[in-house]
Amino acid sequence: MNEATQKQLLEALRETPCARESAHKLEPKIGVRVSPGGYFALAAVLTFVSVVLLRTNRDLAALLLVAITWIVVPILVITDRLYFDGLKLFRSGFGPLLARVAHGRRPQLAVADIERVEVSTVRTLRRGGSVRYRYSIEISGKGSTFAFASGGRNFRQMVRSVLLNLSHEKLDARAFELREYLAEPKRISEQVDALGIAAPSVLENTNDRHARIEKRVGALETANLPDEVDRARALREVANRLRVAGRLRESAEAFRRALHLTPHDGWLLYEYARLLRSQASAFSDAHLLTRACAALKLALLRGGEDAQLAERVGESFFEFGRIVRAGKALRRAIEIESSSFRALVVLAELALSEGKLAHVIHHYGDAARVAPDAASARMARREADYYARLNDDENYLSAELRRMNWLEGASRVQQFSARVSFAALFVALTGSFIDPIVASLGWALASSSIIGWSGALMLRKLLSRRRGMESA
pTM, whole model, 2 decimals? Predict the structure, then answer.
């Protein structure tokens, strides 16, 4: 067999299904650490129990319990990781191993079975014009949910690897932004330097001069030369990356420059509105929220026949609390493209917020018919069936209302118990220097609060799932 024939044979073998599967298995796994909050809560409860044992003169039991707790819990935290191998998400570690033994299967979720991705953000630090965001991503499908939080390069790799495998219909606005614009801090800084964007301290002194750039947008007319279009594209990219990274003042400057070059770009106006919303939330400025809504209206006007932009504008209006505007934008998206799955799903959520169950059922039913894949169709049908059951079965509706009321009550009890337990522990620890009776009352109240908190937590876990459709 000559060399050319060997090469042809190797090329043919690479294209076989077995070879492709084997090559895929060789892809490196990407892993992130699962949020340790649950483990630390368990450790805190067990530590408190050991303190109670110590107070009742059970010294050996207290010592063994606290030692086992703070040996086992760190091991569980360190080993519990979420991995993605290109085909599925799965958890690995001692905690998931116990779950596998209990349920008979490994906690995992294939990419094809992912139904939706939702992102929540928490501001953890504000300094000047910058905000430190902590992102929490929740991926759900087929009754399974995987959640992980931001933190370092592994998180960014996980986001890029997982979200790039999903269509935009499954991503909420924040998830879509993370997929498109989450980047390494070093790379962002290099782009900022290359584009000549000033430092936040400099921009703060010139803030008044650019306070109302949206008024200038409508009046600006640019030549849109090729080099200007390329520069506007680069400015738009870095502006969004800065916004996702929390560098809001620099992001505003990049958006200002991009809007000067391409003032009629609907997507740019939409993203600028998202920036204004971030600033309004970070700086508690209601006026900025009004400007964000104005920018969204202008984006919808300039967007033309772009159904995806209309979807995102409607979703943002809903997020901003502008229900009427959101409905108009979402219906506009459906007029442009009748198979707009995302618009139908958000319309269903909007109708639910208004208590219109018939509209919810109708929109989810339409979404199931135009779903882009089996997982999305399954999610939409499940929601339509659930709300149809609520609408048709009064007994089921009453049972679900009781469940939701109990769930809300359990949440309030858990929050109240947590506050009381901290205060009671403080009284118990300081009361020993004042009067033993005060200390005893503090320990009794702390014990009751911890028991109440644990009970409320278990009740929330029990009530978080909907009642089965087969049950009355």
Answer: 0.81
